[in-house]
């Protein structure tokens, strides 16, 4: 039997290793020397949680963890989290199960501390069930190859509740939480957080800075943060906000260079939760985001099931929201292009109205798709 997860004993910053620094003369290769320096700074500051995944950088992230961490530090001085991905690249059941053995080899360890089923969401939930991967991780834990298992999650609050009812022995969950998405109808950080708390699950936070968006917020948000504290980085507000929540195992920050590492360590080394004045500033920022008038799409996908043109409606609405809230046209357009690369575009809509009949939020989908055409096509 392994011990239960020690919430109080785990420092509140985790090193997300999805976007490690690349070599100046070969952008495809991870800069191991710089990664070693980042690992050293992180460990010197007393942090211990390293997060990677089978699919990050085609396996190079796990190998970088071995070179920069495992081969340089005693095994009991850090913890490693990695993930099994059953849908990217469409592995069959055997290939999905083989991932753990490959991860252990790449990492150069004989067990992982935290093992996650990766990125559970509405459209891949069945694969994890059909391949019996929930039982697979239970079995690997019994064999001693995994210390703790859980899953990372991108679905609806209802789906999270279902999964935790079906798998009450999951030991932790990894959720997208940040102050901007706290009340977001699509990501639903608050609702997911509350469900995890209801089930008494420790929470690993991902996307605390919303993929970097909150490190460089729009002018209105930037102004209130600078007025409140001219010396604090925008990222520090975002990371301290989530680290101040109860029940957090750790907050993953995806760090890509030494400067980001130093910034994170400057306020997380001697972490102080946000005080009541600082919480008010976050409240003002959240109000500005609410006032931006995001489309209240919950990504339930009822609308897409019968769309004859296979238009990814909720993903298109996310792109519109990126522009409405953050005035980030470049990122919004990138999201739109990715979302529509292999299916229908907004301009393919034939206005049959099926989606509007199916939408529980009664959204004027046809009109909103026209907005996407005007913005992105
Ligand atoms: S109205 Fe357009 S988006 Fe809606 S179901 Fe019909 S084709 Fe698809
Ligand atoms: S049915 Fe409505 S709320 Fe659900 S994904 Fe479609 S547009 Fe969004």
Give an account of the 3D structure:
With 377 residues, the chain is α/β, with parallel strands linked by helices. It folds into two domains: 13-284, Alpha-Beta Barrel (TIM Barrel); 313-376, no CATH class. Helix content is 44%, strand content 14%. It contains 15 helices and ten strands. It has helices spanning 32-44, 60-70, 93-107, 125-130, 133-142, 157-166, 189-198, 219-228, 234-243, 258-268, 276-291, 313-326, 329-339, 354-358, 365-376, and strands at residues 13-16, 22-23, 26-30, 49-51, 79-84, 112-120, 146-153, 172-176, 203-206, 248-254. It has an eight-stranded parallel barrel with strand order 1-4-5-6-7-8-9-10, surrounded by five helices. A two-stranded antiparallel sheet has the order 2-3. Strand 7, helix 6 (157-166) and strand 8 (172-176) form a beta-alpha-beta unit. Helix 8 (219-228) runs antiparallel to helix 11 (276-291). The protein starts with 12 loop residues before the first strand and ends with a helix. The model has no long low-confidence stretch (mean pLDDT 94). The chain binds iron/sulfur cluster (2 copies). One iron/sulfur cluster binds at residues 297-303, 313-314, 358-359, 361, 363, 365. One iron/sulfur cluster binds next to helix 14 and helix 15.
Concise structural overview:
With about 375 residues, the protein is an alpha/beta fold. About 45% of the residues lie in helices and about 15% in strands.
What descriptors fit this protein?
two-stranded antiparallel ribbon, 377 residues, binds iron/sulfur cluster, eight-stranded parallel barrel, TIM Barrel, globular
């Amino acid at each position: 039997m392994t011990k239960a997860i020690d919430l109080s004993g785990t420092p509140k910053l985790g090193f997300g290793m999805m976007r490690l620094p690349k070599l100046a003369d070969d952008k495809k290769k991870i800069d191991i020397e710089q990664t070693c320096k980042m690992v050293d700074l992180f460990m010197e500051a007393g942090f211990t949680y390293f997060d990677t995944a089978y699919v990050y950088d085609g396996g190079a992230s796990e190998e970088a963890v071995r070179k920069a961490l495992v081969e340089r530090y005693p095994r009991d001085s850090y913890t490693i989290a990695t993930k099994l991905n059953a849908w990217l690249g469409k592995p069959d059941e055997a290939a999905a199960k083989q991932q753990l053995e490959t991860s252990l080899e790449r990492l150069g360890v004989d067990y992982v501390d935290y093992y996650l089923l990766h990125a559970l969401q509405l459209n891949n939930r069945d694969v994890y069930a059909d391949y019996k991967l929930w039982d697979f991780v239970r079995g690997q834990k019994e064999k001693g190859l995994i210390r703790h298992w859980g899953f990372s999650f991108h679905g609806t609050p209802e789906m999270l509740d279902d999964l935790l009812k079906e798998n009450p022995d999951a030991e932790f969950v990894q959720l997208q939480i940040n102050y901007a998405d706290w009340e977001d109808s699509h990501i639903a950080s608050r609702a997911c957080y509350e469900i995890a708390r209801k089930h008494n699950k420790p929470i690993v936070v991902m996307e605390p800075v919303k993929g970097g968006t909150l490190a460089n917020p729009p002018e209105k948000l930037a102004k209130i943060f600078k007025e409140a504290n001219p010396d604090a980085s925008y990222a520090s507000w975002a990371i301290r906000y989530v680290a101040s929540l109860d029940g957090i195992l750790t907050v993953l920050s995806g760090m890509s260079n030494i400067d980001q590492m130093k910034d994170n360590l400057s306020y997380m080394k001697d972490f102080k939760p946000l005080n009541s004045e600082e919480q008010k500033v976050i409240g003002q920022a959240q109000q500005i985001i609410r006032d931006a008038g995001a489309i209240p799409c919950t990504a339930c996908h009822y609308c897409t099931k019968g769309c004859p043109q296979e238009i990814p409606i909720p993903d298109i609405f996310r792109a519109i929201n990126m522009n409405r809230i953050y005035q980030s046209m470049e990122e919004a357009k990138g999201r739109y292009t990715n979302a529509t690369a292999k299916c229908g575009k907004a301009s393919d809509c034939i206005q049959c109205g099926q989606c509007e009949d199916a939408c529980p939020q009664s959204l004027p989908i046809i009109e909103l798709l026209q907005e996407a055409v005007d913005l992105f096509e």
